[in-house]
Amino acid sequence: MPQTVCSGTMFTTSSGFSPHLACAEPGEEEEEGAPQEGPGPAACLADGPPITSASLETLIQNLVPTADYYPEKAYVFTFLLSARLFIPPSELLSRVCEQCIKQQQLDQSPLDTVKVRKFGPKILQLLTEWTETFPSDFRDEKMVGHLKDIIHRIAPCDEAYWKTLNQMLQKLSQRLALLSQGEESIVKVSLNASSISDKLVAFKTKPPPIQKDILSICNDPYMLAQQLTHVELEHLRHIGPEEFVQAFVQKDPLDGTQQPSFSEQKKKTTNLEAYVRWFNRLCYLVATEICMPAKKKQRATMIEFFIDVARECFNIGNFNSLMAIISGMNMTPVSRLKKTWSKTKTAKFFILEHQMDPTGNFYNYRTALRGAAHRSQTANSNRERIVIPFFSLLIKDIYFLNEGCANRLPNGHVNFEKFMELARQVGEFMTWKQVECPFEEDRAILHYLHTAPIFSEDGLYLASYESESPENQVEKDRWKALRSNVLAKT
Questions:
Q1: Which of 33, 114, 261, 263 is the most buried (most CB within 10 A)?
Q2: Domain Ras-GEF: where (predicted)?
């Protein structure tokens, strides 16, 4: 069925995170500031033990590079992703820069050129990773100010640092421009997507179609699956890793208050929400295309067409479109069309339903996803690298990871093991979304997918009842009410 952005009421089972993720017992004491070892996945510092928990101050210190030390890339990604739950990115960068200035004595004159030349490449590497992985953080002018300040301090020791600064700012500007353009285009598409007036199907006497159908635009299931993959990858491309964290902001368990970084600014989950809206639109588009035709044979043909499209999506590795199509075909206005379904070959549909069966916490789907992920890792072409997960389930997995494990342990330490698992799941997604779509765009099909009018829920029921009469009193009453509403509007 169509999805909504994650909330506590929409989930029924926990899933997707390591059973090793456990909080310390309430009476357990740990040395303040000392990284802790433990079972399960963990990030390591360079030549250091795995970290499962530590104070926020210690974690910040471990992020700060020196002339002889640079944190592992996995640690950098994990901490930059999760730290925003405890401290705004601008404050984090400020504290990193302050520690760099103090440790490297960058506020003194003259500078120790030899020391700074050893330190310079490492702080530039950290800033490069930050701007490349979390560019939206730098929409905040304070972030850009901190970046410029620290590089200005080391630049007198090496002219190359000025060039690096200019290149970094230029690339950052390009990334932010692309992000803004993508967000604007997604919003524009959402606004242009219209709905069919419900009155157009009221009391219909089997007239000619009131709009083009998908078969008049594309009658090749493989081609349509390719274009759906274009849409999916375009949406994925604009979802930043920070949106997964910002979607699940919690109160600090230590004092019960909302973290300042989110009480003072709106959560930025625009792209994530737009992707959920796309899933819902595709569900309703499928249902509309099936309920719209006046003749039973045409409806049956449409059902079989979408079954073939869904199968091609599965073969491509586009599980999100696959689930949207199945969800649309399982909506009550479609599933109740028994006479229509009796004219279709449903064996392939049942196989696809089995693949996406929620039983066993979507065991069959997760097995297929692992297979697609393995294929992607060993692929020689972008065609084989495509992995588009069922997005709502990914969100649920992250939601339950967030709900099932506290952000902080009883002693106040950050539960870093939890955030390592979060980073693993988000990191997988980040890898998948970077694949370039290998299929040629068909603008006519893409335009139709984005703008073809769709029925509202009431419109779907009305079209369904007009196609196949109500079978019981409940359906008759609803049909009567819907027809009355349409008459009242006209």
A1: 261
A2: 220-470
Report pLDDT for 259. Answer: 45
Domain annotation for the chain: domains and CATH numbers: 53-173 (1.20.870.10), 211-246+269-455 (1.10.840.10)
56 three-class SS:
helix
Say what the pLDDT of residue 195 is: 55
Buried-exposed string 102-120: b where 16+ CB fall within 10 A, e elsewhere: eebebeeeebeeebbbebb
- Distances, alpha carbon 143 to alpha carbons 27, 135, 242, 417, 437, in Å: 40, 10, 16, 27, 33
Q: Which among 56, 45, 11, 46 has a CA at the least distance from the CA of 415?
A: 56
Quick count: other Cβ atoms within 10 Å of Cβ 39? 13
Q: Mean pLDDT, the chain, as a whole number?
A: 84
Residue 228's CB is within 10 A of a number of other CB atoms, namely: 28
**DSSP conformation class of 44:** E
| Integer Cα distance of 441 and 122 in angstroms | 41
Q: For residue range 21-58, list pLDDT tens digits in order.
A: 333 333 343 444 343 333 334 465 555 667 899 999 99
Q: 486 versus 464: which is more confidently predicted?
A: 464
SS3 454: strand
b/e 428-440 (16+ beta carbons within 10 angstroms → b)? bbbebbebebebe
Residue 376 pLDDT greater than 80, yes or no: yes
